[in-house]
What we know:
The complex is a heterodimer of chains A (395) and B (74).
Chain A: H1 7-13, H2 19-28, H3 32-47, E1 52-54, E2 67-68, E3 70-72, E4 85-89, H4 99-112, E5 113-119, E6 126-131, H5 133-145, E7 161-162, H6 176-186, H7 188-192, E8 202-205, H8 214-217, E9 220-226, E10 231-232, H9 234-241, H10 246-251, E11 259-261, E12 266-268, H11 278-282, E13 287-288, E14 293-299, E15 313-319, H12 326-342, H13 349-356, H14 358-365, H15 387-394
Helix pairs in contact in A: 1-2, 2-3, 4-5
Chain B: H1 3-16, E1 23-24, H2 26-32, H3 38-50, E2 54-58, E3 63-67
Antiparallel strand pairs in B: 1-3, 2-3
Helix pairs in contact in B: 1-3
Amino acid sequence: MSKPETPLLDELEKGRWPSFVKDLKQAAKKNPMARDLIHQLELSYKDRIGHWKHGGIVGVKGYGAGVIGRYSDRPDLFPNVQAFHTLRVNHPTGWFYKTDALRKLCDVWDKHGSGLTNMHGSTGDAILLGTTTDHLQPCFNDLSDAGFDLGGSGSALRTPSACVGPARCEWACIDSLDICYNITMTYQDQIHRPMFPYKFKIKVSACPNDCVASIARSDFSIIGTWKDDIQVDQKEVLAYASSINIQKEVCDLCPTRCMEWNGKELKIYNDDCTRCMHCINLMPKALRPGKEKGASILVGGKAPIVKGALLSWVVVPFIKLEPPYDELKNLIERIQDWWDENGKSRERLGELITRLGMRVFLKAVGLPAVPQMVKAPRTNPYVFFWPEDIQKEVK
Amino acid sequence: MSEELKKRIAELFHEKSKGDKKMFYIRDVTKWLPDEDRHAVQNAVKELLDEEVLKYWSSGSSTYLILAEFFPKE
Lengths: 395, 74
């Protein structure tokens, strides 16, 4: 019996996600880049080391982002992946494609690249994996003709992303799609021409369920919320009582214990509600977000690298968001400007706030300190008085 | 755009690139010119990029600036 060509990858194919290998093998039948990629990957598993060299070329004419240079360190063995650059293509907001747009995207990529894609990368972009330096500009030209543009990479504003929002979701408190599109179009220069100390990510979730995980993944999170009371349909609450244990599954699991259930009526102390969405998610026919809708703004979320992972902090508890979003954009620009001026190279916004302090940040961007900013009452009172304010009080 | 500022930035790049280090963050460039407005420096750098005096070099996560003549060949 002949020895298999890629025994380690074949083993992986038997695991829980066989399509990773299966799809590569399928692509390898028609594309020599994909074929060499498989064999280089097999070698990487064998040697227990990545055989890629990262970095270098950044884009096409006029752009400083959107392309991530990648080269094989074994071009002698795998000449077809000697250059294997990645293109980040700005996805349509909410990831809604028409099938003809997807076909066009794939046709362009079959023509210029390996045919391999990652739909979608964690930034949100459509990731096109593997093309040569010669093909970058022609590929970009064809993508532009098909209505696509490159996304952000490097020390730039990364491609803003949003949940599907009002297009498909009944909980949407803001038009996440329109906000994301508006921000993307406004900040084209920041996306394509990196001038920041490091990456800056903006993500928009239309409700506190935060389906794009903006709290954990973005420097500037916009999360839909409401200001008034949760809308309650007591008849529907009673109907739920026959299928779920409201006391145990709803009231007892409310993080602020702001609900009471007497077997007939659900009472909500809205002042104590933190918009966790648990009750609404559990009884969607009975409970709905309030009518006065807007968004909370949080800043400083990031994955670990320099400092540990950070979750975003509330800096604006409630803001009305309506086109053209001038107030929002003004805040984004004030924050970016402060970070750009004070941040060290490769320092994210959250790390800078941790280093200089929240009160310095709030003063610089002109935001008042409010109780909703306190993450853990009486344990981390990070907002202190300024000496001049104390002097005023003393006088 | 001040041609003078662009010239100074290009000169600084040549001077700072004499050693082994050829790639710099935009933050390095604004630090070289503490008396200049940061935005003016950034705009001048953008023009130098358009004129291909400078080039971007990116690791994918962060971006550097490098004199075009030192940009590594494949």
